[in-house]
Amino acid sequence: MPSVDGVLFDYGRTLVTFAYPTDDLLRVLNQFRPRIEAALGVPAPEAETILHDVLLPLEAFIGSMSEDEVDYMHVYRETWQRAGMRLPDDLLHEILDAEQRCWDRAARVDPDAATVLAWLGECGIKRGVCSNAPFPPEMMRRQVESNGIAELVDGVVFSSEVGRRKPAPEVYLAALEAIGTTAEKTLFAGDRVREDYEGPVALGMRAVVVTAHAEEPPPDGIPAIASLAELPLLL
User: Fold this and answer.
1) What does the pLDDT look like over 3-15, one tens digit per residue?
2) Domain span holding position 152
């Protein structure tokens, strides 16, 4: 492989993994129930009901196949309303922020991520995050700062900042600009074929699928490595 000036990484299932923080979310929802009840003027549903009727349906937006990113506060508000709860935006934002802090605590950095990112930096290779994430950018940036990823990369771009989702070219272009490299001199590493291989390759990048946390293996013919620890061998 020709030399590269930068490596872009997907975030979830590549640099970090998550276990659904059910207990933490239920605890947070229980804390908000008195305020939800005051805003509604009627008894608030149990935390388990809110989790099932509001939070779990929102998972569909995280894995959306659309190349247009959603206005997450808009869909968040609508999902609460469909569950029979019309809440003021300031309260909804507080609940969402507290919910996202549960995910901040649930994030687990891949055991090889810090070592590989540090090695790339020592070699003078730019490092960036390029990820689909519909949540408010300030909440996502807080997460990468809290888990240490932010200090190990030169740029971070989430789809919510661009308004487009991978494999839309705008997301990759924003990430390339953030780390100051060109597509021809950049390698992309992620866990999904459409977003992390086909999209980058269409733009002129080299790409590889990291299978360590992937939901399914890539088809034959798609370059793949078993873990991030193997990535330096490609450079």
Assistant:
1) 899 999 999 999 9
2) 6-18+107-234
